[in-house]
Amino acid sequence: MMVTIRPYETEDLAAITDLLKDESWTTLAADPSRFDQAMKGSSPALVALHNGEICGYIRCITDQVITLLVAELLVDGKLRGQGVGGKLLQAAHDLFPSTRMEMLATSTSKSYYEQKKFRPFYGFRKTYAE
User: Which runs of E-coded beta strand occur in 8-125?
Assistant: First the structure.
């Protein structure tokens, strides 16, 4: 399957918001302008295109030397298992090859990352309101 990876642009917001809603990631989809601001403030923030349509994205935060934290990775459910997520992960890591890539995973995404040879580690999450 032919997939093109490129940097995020504000024009991508509607398509990504649709992916977020399809996945029931309601917190991210609730305020598109806030999400756009997060994408623009992240590095790298990349989108995957198949047949000219956005089919996934990755948003990362990095110090450019040691750590590359994947904040979100999402691929259209109809195209999962076809290498889109792997291409997004690789494209992000290619930009900062000296870093170690880290992410939080849900119980449903855990097996995907294990298959990609990521090793588990223990972490915590808390919002400001909690």
Answer: 45-50, 53-62, 67-75, 100-103
Torsional sign, CA 84, 86, 89, 95: negative
In angstroms, the CA 107 to CA 92 distance is 23
Q: Which residue has the tokens 């909690």?
A: 130
pTM: 0.86
Q: Which domains does the chain have, with CATH numbers?
A: 4-115 (3.40.630.30)
CA neighbor of 53 nearest in space, from 12, 22, 96, 88: 12
Q: What is the CA radius of gyration of the chain?
A: 14
User: In what helix (H) or strand (E) does residue 111 lie, and over which residues does it extend?
Assistant: helix 110-115
Cis before 44 (ω within 30): yes
Instruction: Give the pLDDT confidence of 13-35 residue by residue, as tens digits.
Output: 999 999 999 999 888 889 999 99
- Identify the three-state secondary structure at position 36: helix
